[in-house]
Amino acid sequence: MKALIVGADRLGNIPELLAGHGIGIARHVSGRDRAAQRADPSMPAGIDLLILFTDFLGHNVMRGYREAARRQGVRIVACRRSVCSLKSALAGSGAEAKAQSSPSSIR
Predict the structure, then answer these.
(1) Contact by Cβ (8 Å): 15, 87
(2) Is the entire prediction scored with pTM above 0.85?
(3) Which alpha helices (DSSP H) does 21-99 contain, by range?
């Protein structure tokens, strides 16, 4: 599954969390600079999931990407830019983590 991430200047540990859910990052747009605010919020081909980090994103940018995703039938996840918030948002959207096969994870 490929995701378009909109919002946040840096992603920190988020790529590792997404990889654990079988999600790859196709593109990351910070959404805070003026060029991103004026750009056409089109969805690149092959995107299955739109992740919006609402605490680092302007309302107009968020609305544009949300409308583009809805037109193309792309699933949308909106949350704050933290691993905990993203983890709970992904769980709520039905994107479950890949099963770990190590004995230490089975209790």
Answers:
(1) no
(2) no
(3) 34-38, 59-72, 83-93
